[in-house]
Amino acid sequence: MKKVALGFALALSVIACNLGPNTRVNSYTPFGQFQPGESERVSHEYTTSLLKPAPDWKVTILNASLPPGMAVVNGNVVVSPNAPFELLGRFELGFRLDDSAPTQSQLPDYLKRFARAANADTLIVEIEPRQDKPDKVQVVSGYALRTKTGATRDDEPAPATIQFAKPADRDTKL
User: Fold this and answer.
1) Which pLDDT tens digit goes with each residue over 99-136?
2) 70: which of 14, 142, 148, 168 lies 20 to 30 Å off by Cα?
């Protein structure tokens, strides 16, 4: 009798684990002014949104490409002051390693939910497929952006100007 009860309890726990969300926010690092609790808020809002239909949130999703006015310099993302958007943060979404993980064609609903939680209207993403099932997604990482007030996504920003210190300037005290 104890073996049957133990087996039943184990089966229920496995079923309960599989009923939970198949995704989570592995990390979210907001940029700019320090906002205590912002990472937790975005993660919680994203997770709770999974219980509802995907939001009707207009979001542009760029796959491993940067919009005009944005560049990577020495491993850091830089945004031109004239760019029509602001960089909100860096994120990583993880998916369960079972058959509930989405395919790339199913990702937009998850990304819309995340964009809504982060108050973003543009996401720059890199998609990492699973090794064992390449049609399934394991991780999506990237950056969340928001269009600046009064700007449109069609505005062409001036190219970013990056100035490096001259050798003699490096010893200058601030």
Assistant:
1) 899 999 999 999 999 999 999 999 999 999 999 999 99
2) 168
DSSP at 74? T
pLDDT above 80 (res 44): yes
- In a domain? residue 174: no
Residue 3 within a domain: no
CA distances from 129 to 28, 58, 109, 121, 126 (A): 20, 25, 17, 24, 10
pLDDT at 156 over 60: no
* Whole-angstrom distance, CA of residue 154 vs CA of residue 42: 27
Residue 145 is assigned to a structural domain of this protein: yes
User: Is position 100 within any domain?
Assistant: yes
Domain that holds residue 41: 18-149
* 167: its two tokens: 């050798």
Alpha-helical regions (H) of 55-162: 107-118
Helix (H) or strand (E) holding 39: helix 38-49
Give the whole-angstrom CA distance, residue 134 versus residue 115.
Answer: 25
Q: How many domains does the chain have?
A: 1
